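User: Could you check the structure of this?
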Amino acid sequence: MKKILLTLICLMFLAAPATAAKGKVRIAYVEWDCATASTMTAKAALEQMGYEVETLPVAAAAMWQALGTGDVDAMVTAWLPVTHADYYEKVKDKVEKVSVVSGGAKLGWAVPAYVTIDSIEELNANADKFDGKIIGIDPGAGLMKLSEQAMADYGLNKLELMEGSGATMTAALDTAIKNQKWIVVTAWSPHWMFGKWDLKYLKDPKGVLGGEEKIEAIVRKGLKEDMPEVHAFFSNFKWDSPAQLQMVMAWNQAGGTPEENAKRFLKEHPDTVKGWMGK
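Assistant: Sure, the predicted structure tokens are below.
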């Protein structure tokens, strides 16, 4: 009987997931295409290292607040120095910047290449061609706050900034392009839409929407002491190029779940992943 009990106990230990030994990591993110791609890839890599990972999709303000209070451990989707500047300022003493996940990031308003205007300053005069609308994303996003400022600074009183989501914005873009209609959308890159369609950013001579940005990994204060290996991972986590991130985003659009495509990336780019793990 004792032998049977010992055998059962041994089997229980063998069957226990490796995550139990290393602990749980919580990552907050906003459900933008770039943020989803980065977050799920980080999750897959940490799980491969033996951690249990919980990903929490929230609004941008809630993401920063949760990190500032220590309710989550990290995010890999902070747009700085402009887009998330207000959020960062409120919690900067409670968080730590650890890595530039991707450079070459940009915010702006984009139109299909066949649209014959080139500047935000030309929008009012062509408002009718755009049905009086600028197609936006989720309210509260940094890009929407800057877009509201642009509406005021450029005196765009003949157009309305429409709230929505990343998905509704790209759906509207798809429909307009299929019908060769004029459309202007709040946009950012890296994003898969620039690979799928021939788009161009409208010039922003007042610089309201900012210049080149960086997507950064931010962790809560104390993570280095609590989970040094996890802290080291986020410090190393970065894409080899913006094109690499855009590739994973394109996979997510083509098929398969973000989790499946993240695991695909780990298999196809082992050297990059080894660098994240400090190997």
